[in-house]
Amino acid sequence: MELRVLRYFLTVAREGSITAAAVFLHLTQPTLSRQLKDLEKDLGKKLFVRSSHSIMLTEEGMLLRKRAEEILDMVDKLEAEFSSMKETIGGDVYIGGGETEAMRQIARVGKDLQLRYPNIRYHLYSGNEDDVTERLDKGLLDFGILIQPADLSRYNYIDIPAKDVWGVIMRKDSPLASKDTIQAMDLLNVPLICSRQPMKKTFSKNEFMDWFGEDFDKLNIVTTYNLAYNAAIMVEEGIGYAIVLDKIVNTSSDSNLCFRPLEPRLESGLNIVWKKHQVFSAAADLFLKEIQERFQIL
Fold it and tell me: Residue 289: which of 158, 162, 163, 161 has the closest Cα?
């Protein structure tokens, strides 16, 4: 299986047409069709369902699309790392994380490093813990920013000197908007939009669930989310109240939304993590050293 053919396959999957893909790839249609048939023969699986005007992926084709994207992302990352060795100091640093105000601290480290080494580039991936750790484990990310509660047992990590504050976003015309803080009893009889990560029952200690105590199972959770932007849209449209971290949703004077912190105050710590025994590129190694120095971890 050649990387070139995988790129052909992904182009056809994206375009939904061999004709359109052939034009994009500057190939003749018979040549591209033959490459795809050879790929199906090599794998022993049918990858496409062909019609007169378009093609669709089979279940096996959808699996190959996912794996091919991961393989080619890794190849591109590897090529960039070796290319960076030819330069004085440069290369790519891949960072994934959830939405958090603490990303400012990471950004400041990155900016200071980039001023000294302008050939360093940063690539950000947004997602929850499951999204980020999956990409970390596959080598598609160098570092992950995890919001507690999170499983750190498989990684090296550094505590980020910051705390995220939990609260509720709601429409400014909502009944609870008149309150300065939100208590657990206020949330028992309203529709809630919650992040999937803190709701996991797999952690030995989950401060989010502990805050609600025995009332947690009584909550009316109508929607779950992994990134808060879409959750905020659901709140604006009247779906419910969203439990989110402070400062990641627009609640300024020109917004229809407002934020109220939980009482008693509920905070989450943050960690920057990387795989144990990770071999870093020159750029990622510099970034780690800068993080260690900045956060005073030796």
Answer: 158
